[in-house]
Amino acid sequence: MVTTLAAVAAAQQPTHHWAIVLHGGAGVIERATMDPKTESAYRASMTQAIQAGAAILDKGGSSLDAIETAIQILEDDPLFNAGRGAVFTAEGKNELDAAIMDGSDLKAGAVAGVTRTRHPISLARAVMEKSPHVMLIGAGADAFAAEVGLEQVEPSFFFTERRWQSLIKQLQKEGRPIPPRPAGVPPPPPVPIAEFEAPTAHKFGTVGVVALDRAGNIAAGTSTGGTPAKRWGRVGDSPIIGAGTYASNQSCAVSATGVGEYFIRLGVAREVCNLVYFRGFKLQQAADQVIHKELEALHGDGGLIAITPDGQLVWSFNTSGMYRARLAEGGRLEIGVYNDEP
Ligand code: ASP
C-alpha cells in the first residue's frame, strides 16, 4: 500500500522540460566592425557552452550544475571577459567577480576581486554551499578557494595580449599612467597594435547563464572581469545579488550584463523578478520594462537573460549587440549577436 501511494505521488510530480539561456556580454557589437572569423568563434564558443549545460539538464542534472559547467567553459575561453581573457584594472591586474543563486531555496554565493582562482563561478558556488556567508572578497576569497580545494593559478594565467593592448590604448587615450607589463606573461608579440581591438570597441563580454532543470528548479550565474581600467577596488553588479544575478522559483532567474553601476542602482535582476511576482508581468514584458524604460531613463547600457519555472526564456538589451543563446528541450538552438536578429 505504501509503495502504491509513493508511486502515485511520484506520478503526480510535475515533469519539467529543461531549458537554458546564456549571454556573453552586451555592448557596441556591429556587423561593420566585426570580422567574420571572430564572429564565428563567438558563435562556436556559445554553442559549446550551452550544449554542455544542456547535456547535464537532459540527464536530469540540476540547473546549478548546468550553469557552473557552461560558465566554466566561457571562463576558460579568452574571447570573454571572465576568467582567462578578463579585462585589466588600471593597475594592470585581473580582478574577477562572480555570483550564483539557487531559485529553489534562495541560497546564493558571490565573490569579488578574486585574482588566483581559475573558476570564479565555482568559488561563488563553494561560498554558497560550503561557507556560512553569501559574499567573500579579494585575498580572503582566494584563500577560501584554496581551502576547499578549488584550482589556484598564477595571476598571469588570466592574461591575454588582446586585453592588455586594449588597456594600454585606453589609458593612453585618457592620459593615465601605463602600468608595467605583468610578471610571467609572454613577451609582446611583433604584431602592430592596430590588429588588436580598439578601445572604442566597447564590448562588455561578461558571461551569464540561467537554467531550468527537470525538477522545476531555476538558477542564475554570472562571471566577469568587470569594466576595463577599473580602479580603487571597483565592484560591478555581477556579484551583487539582486543587481546582476538573482533567482527565485517564485518568479524568475536573471543574469545581467552592462555598465554595472546602473544595474546596481536599479537592482535590475530583482526588479525583473518583482514585476513578474507582484505585477503578474510576462517575463519578456518585465525584462523589456526594466531595460528599455527604467535603465534607459538613467541612460544606462546593457542587457539581461532570464527564465521562469514555466519555461519562458527571454533576453532584452538596449545596445547594438549582445552575445546570446537559448535552447529548450525538444527545441532548436537559437544564437544571436546583433540587435536585428530575433
Ligand atoms: N556588468 C559588468 C560590470 O559592471 C560588466 C559587464 O557586464 O560586462 O562589472
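^ aspartic acid complex. Residues 25, 81, 204-206, 224, 226-227, 236-238, 244, 257-260 surround aspartic acid (CB under 6 Å). DSSP finds nine helices and twelve strands in the chain.
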